[in-house]
Design the sequence.
């Protein structure tokens, strides 16, 4: 079953539609179409020849027919001519079948891109010169192009940079590099159609639907009903909520439920919940029958932007977090920002700490949004989840198995995990990471890695979001030391940190330096004072 809809790239001549269409089609593994090329192939003539013999009205009729014919093909990425959607019928047809992404570029950029090929574009021919014709064309169509909700500027961006922005706009992220590729889809309301997506992986299978006490009450009945209607046999497996239950015992309980539910090697585990549910479910799936498929349906902000992405699964030991686990990527991740409306405010803030972390790593737009505080984020959750997820996807694709660059995702976590453990997990994960980011940035400033004042900037953003930025009084120094001593990122007994050097431009993943070794006593001095 093919659940994706068409993606139409539209915009003025020279905005990069054809180049971006090829990049996206290769990335998404979708068919790629160029409407102008299809018109030429069908008529056996070039676009200039059609204009000369039939005029613009004749070409537009051919364009209209070609769009209708195109929609009979398997859905994919299509580059449309710069005036294809001036026709109201064409626009309605495209909107009904998919998403229109209107590309924009400044006039000087278009001049530069079209300089060598303006002679092939009939609408740019005229006695006054092609630049004047283009200027007039842009002015005539300005309101038309501005009327599209989804717009993307390609000015100053490479095809890859524009491609990532486009993926954020549509909320689909192919993830490669860890064996079989899989997709993460971020779309409001997608839980309602999750059964259709899961059925892409095979119909009439048995699924172990894993949820905790909270998500079972909110979502399990509806999802079970839809899966059953789609031909699935559902075994619901409920685990206790909370980090305290992210254990080997919980995993063993799940394995027992899998056996009782008749799961076999063709079965599917579906993790419905936050980061704990995803980590435990994925780990259970990784080891059950030496590995069965699983999908992740994250319902918390923290899980959507971080824990559900990357294929790292695992559980905690009494000595520390995530000390036992496996790389076992899911077959699919479906994130529904609508689920965030059910989150307690504390859980929402906890997830925002990871969003800030991703902003520091590679997307200043996220930091700017978070600096507005919770009120400024109202109505922007889908945008926020997509952009934060994109940062992590780029990192894990560059370093799937945490051999180098992927360690930048640990920013704030070395100290954060130690604080979580020392508090007996009374401090939420995101709260601990928020404190960890501030402390680790102060260390970076002292080491000359970060510019002075960066810790203050990050602290101010976190404070606006209502997150803690100081180590709570009363935590035992020796327990913090013990947590640091078993941190899973240690190498040869040395404590390693990922420290920020500054906030980079979007797409730059080098603004956090991984693998910085700092003596534990120096760290404790900064943490405990």
Sequence:
């Amino acid at each position: 079953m093919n659940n994706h809809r068409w993606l139409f790239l539209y915009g003025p001549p020279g905005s990069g539609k054809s180049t971006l269409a090829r990049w996206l089609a290769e990335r998404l593994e979708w068919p790629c179409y160029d409407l102008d090329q299809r018109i030429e192939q069908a008529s056996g003539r070039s676009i200039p020849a059609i204009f000369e013999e039939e005029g613009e009205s004749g070409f537009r009729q051919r364009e209209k027919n070609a769009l209708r014919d195109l929609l009979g093909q398997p859905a994919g990425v299509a580059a449309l001519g710069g005036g294809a959607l001036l026709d109201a019928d064409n626009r309605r047809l495209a909107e009904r079948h998919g998403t229109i992404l209107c590309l924009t570029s400044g006039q000087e950029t278009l001049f530069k891109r079209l300089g060598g090929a303006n002679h092939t574009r009939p609408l740019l021919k005229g006695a006054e010169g092609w630049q004047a014709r283009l200027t007039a064309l842009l002015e005539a169509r300005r309101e038309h192009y501005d009327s599209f909700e989804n717009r993307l500027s390609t000015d100053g961006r490479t095809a890859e940079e524009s491609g990532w922005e486009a993926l954020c706009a549509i909320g689909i992220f192919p993830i490669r590099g860890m064996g079989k590729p899989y997709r993460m889809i971020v779309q409001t309301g997608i839980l309602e159609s999750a059964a259709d997506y899961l059925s892409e992986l095979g119909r009439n299978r048995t699924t172990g639907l894993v949820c905790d006490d909270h998500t079972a009450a909110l979502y399990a009945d509806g999802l079970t009903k839809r899966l059953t209607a789609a031909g699935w046999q559902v075994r619901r497996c409920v685990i206790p909520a909370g980090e305290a239950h992210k254990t080997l015992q919980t995993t063993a309980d799940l394995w027992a439920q899998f056996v009782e539910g008749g799961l076999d090697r063709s079965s599917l585990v579906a993790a419905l919940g936050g980061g704990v549910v995803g980590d435990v479910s994925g780990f259970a799936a990784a080891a059950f029958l030496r590995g069965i498929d699983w999908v992740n349906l994250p319902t918390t902000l923290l899980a959507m932007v971080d824990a559900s992405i990357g294929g790292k699964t695992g559980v905690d030991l009494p000595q520390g977090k995530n000390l036992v686990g496996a790389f076992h990527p899911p077959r699919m991740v479906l994130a529904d920002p609508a689920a965030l409306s059910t989150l307690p405010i504390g859980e929402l803030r906890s997830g925002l700490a990871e969003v800030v972390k991703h902003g520091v790593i590679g997307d200043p737009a996220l930091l700017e949004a978070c600096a507005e505080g919770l009120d400024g984020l109202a109505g922007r959750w889908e945008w926020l989840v997509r952009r934060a997820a994109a940062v992590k996807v780029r990192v894990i694709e560059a370093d799937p198995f945490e051999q180098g660059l992927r360690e930048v995702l640990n920013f704030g976590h070395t100290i954060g995990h130690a604080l979580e453990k020392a508090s007996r997990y009374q401090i939420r994960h995101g709260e601990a990471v928020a404190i960890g980011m501030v402390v680790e940035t102060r260390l970076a400033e002292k080491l000359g890695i970060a510019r002075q004042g960066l810790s203050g900037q990050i602290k101010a953003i976190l404070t606006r979001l209502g997150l803690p930025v100081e180590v709570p009084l009363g935590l035992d120094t020796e327990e913090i030391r013990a947590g640091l001593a078993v941190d899973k990122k240690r190498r040869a007994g040395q404590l390693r940190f990922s420290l920020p050097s500054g906030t980079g431009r979007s797409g730059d993943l080098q603004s956090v330096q991984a693998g910085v070794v700092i003596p534990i006593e120096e760290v404790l001095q900064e943490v405990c004072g």
